[in-house]
Structure formats: C-alpha cells, structure tokens
Amino acid sequence: MRPITDEELMLQSQNGDQNAFSVVAARYREALMSYLSWGLGNVGNVEAIHDQVLIRARRPIINYRFPQKFATWLFTFAYRAIKR
C-alpha cells in the first residue's frame, strides 16, 4: 500500500477531514522550523512564527489548488512571515 501524498491529504482537508492538515503539517515541521530559524535568525520567535504560519496556511485551505505541491504552498506562507 502506498503512502498518502501531501496533495491527497490537502484534498481530504478541503473536504472536511480535520486531521488531514495536521498530518501533512507534521511532515514539514522540522523543515519549516529550520527555514524559519535561518530566515529570522531569532531562535526565540521561531516557534510562535511557526504556529502563525500554520494558522495562516490553514485559513485559506480552500484556495489550495491540486496538483500544486504542498511544500511550495506552505513555504510561501513562511517566506511572507520572514519578510514581515
């Protein structure tokens, strides 16, 4: 049995699966934290910014368009957070 892709999880999330977004976000936690640490250079704020990025990514979930890569979509929110 093949694993569920990030994009499939996002489609499930759009269709009301409350757990699907949490699963896909957990896959990127370490990479997102590293990216934010690199971009912000302030380790103290990284956890809070990480949480904000996930909130901002979850709100417009209906705007996610398959087959767009989830990682690209998520890291766009992270990039915007770093630039603020």
Can you walk through the features of this model?
It is a single chain. The protein is built from 5 helices and no strands. By secondary structure, the chain is an all-alpha fold. The chain has one domain (6-83): Rna Polymerase Sigma Factor, Chain: A. α3 (29-40) packs across α4. The radius of gyration is 13 Å and the shape is elongated. The mean pLDDT is 88.
List keywords for this structure.
84 residues, mainly alpha, 5 helices
Write a brief caption for the model.
It contains five helices and no strands.
Quaternary organization? single chain
Relative strand content = under 5%
Overall radius of gyration: 13 Å
Q: N- to C-terminal separation?
A: 42 Å
Shape: elongated
What is the CATH architecture assignment? Orthogonal Bundle
Task: State the domain count.
Answer: 1
- Can you identify the CATH superfamily? RNA polymerase sigma factor, region 2, helix turn helix motif
Fraction of helical residues: over 70%
The CATH topology, please? Answer: Rna Polymerase Sigma Factor, Chain: A
According to DSSP, the number of beta strands is: 0
Order of helices and strands: HHHHH
Mean of residue pLDDT values: 88
* Unreliable sequence segments: none
Q: Please report the number of helical segments.
A: 5
Structural class: mainly alpha
CATH class: Mainly Alpha
The main sheet comes to: none
